[in-house]
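Supplementary Methods, section 5.1.

A reviewer requested that the exact input to the structure prediction be made available. We therefore reproduce it here, unchanged from the version used in the analyses.
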Amino acid sequence: MIRIGTDCSGIEAPIQALKNMNIDFRHIFSSDIDKFCIKSIKENYSPEILYEQDIRTRKVEDIPDIDLYVCGFPCQPFSNAGRKKGFKDNRGNVFFECIKVIKHKKPSFFILENVKGILKKDIWDVIYTELKTLENIYNIVWKVLNTKDYGIPQNRERLYIVGKIKDKGIFQFPEHCEMDNIENYIDHNDNTYKTTSKRHEQILSRLQGNNKVFIDFAYGVSTTRSFKNADRLCPCITVKNSIWCVPKHRYININELLALQGFKNFKQCVSDFQTKKQIGNSMSVPVIQKIIENLISIV
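The structure derived from this sequence is encoded cell-by-cell as follows.
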C-alpha cells in the first residue's frame, strides 16, 4: 500500500490519478492555504490530515511517514502571469519547504511540478543547487512534459522533477500515447448561448466551417489569427482563461475544463470562478498518473 502526502494540494490531481489506477493507497496528508481549495479537498477526498496553514509554519518533524511526496509548488513567481519574480516573490520560497520535507521524511519517491519558466538560469541555478543536496539519497531527473502527449488534447507544458531512492530501479519518463479526439470534450448538454464582443464575433465568423473547437481570446487576439491546431487541441488552461467553445458559442464550462485536466466525478462545491482557478492551477491527471505508474513499477 502506498502512503502519499501532498503539499500545495489544490484539487489533488495525484489522488485522482491513484484512484484511476485502482490500487491500494493511504492518503496521509494534504495541505493548502486557500480556503476554497480546502473546501474542495474536504468535499472530494479524505486525507487523514489536512494542513490548513502555510507549510512554512509547519513543523516538518510532525509530518507522518510517507512513500510518495508530491508538490506543485506555487508557479506564479516563475510564470509570465506572475511577472517572473522568482525567489523575490515570497511564494517562491515554498520550494525550500518541499526540500525540507524530502530530507526529513525520505519518501521512496517524490514529484515536484511547476511551469517550465523555472528553467530560467538564475532560478534553475538555485533549484538545482538544492536538488544536489539530495543526490546522496536520490536519483533525480527532470523533464518538460505536455498533456497532449498523454491522451488529453490540451497543449499544456509543465516541468516535472522526479526523485527516487537510489536502491530502487531505474525511472524513465513515460512514453507518449495517442491523443483523444477533442470533440469528445465538448459538453453538448450546455446549450447556453453567449454573446461576445464585436471583435470576437468577427473572428468567430471567419472560423465558421473550420472545425475549430476551443480557442483562447486572451491578450487582445488579432482578427487575422488562424488558431492553428484548434481543431485538435485546446489551449493551455490557466487560472484566468478566456477559452471559447466555438461549436457551442460560449465560454468553456466547468465540465469541459475538468475533463481537459483529466478529472472524473469531481464535485464542485465553490463558485465557478474559484473552481476555474483551481482547475487552472492543477496538474494534469493523466501526466501525473503515468509518472506514478512508472515509479511504482520499479519497486
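The chain has two domains: 2-179+284-296, 182-276. These observations are discussed further in the main text.
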